[in-house]
Amino acid sequence: MSKKSLKILVDEMDDGMDEKLEKIGFEAYSVKKLRTEGLNLHTDFSVISYAKENNMILVTRDTENGEACSENNIPCILLDNDEIFKIVLNKLNQF
Fold this sequence. Notes:
Blueprint: E1 7-10, H1 17-23, E2 27-30, H2 31-36, H3 44-53, E3 56-60, H4 63-71, E4 76-78, H5 81-92
Parallel strand pairs: 1-2, 1-3, 3-4
C-alpha cells in the first residue's frame, strides 16, 4: 500500500503530526482542525466513527480509543506508554 492510499486521522493530542505526515506524502487529517472546520468530533465515539466511515487509520494516545478500534477492527496506531517505553528502550540499546 502506498503512502497516498493511506488516510490518517490524528487525534487532538498530536495535532500538528498531520502536517508532518502530509509533508512526507501521507493524506493526513487532524481532529482538532476538522473541528474548527465545523465537524462534530467532540467525543471518542464520534472520532472513532469518523475514522471508520472514512477508511482512516486513527493515531491516538487515548488507550480507550485504541481498545475501541481493536474491538471494532478499525486500524489504529496507539501511542500509549508501552509504545513510548519501546522507543526509549530501543534508543538506550543504541548506546
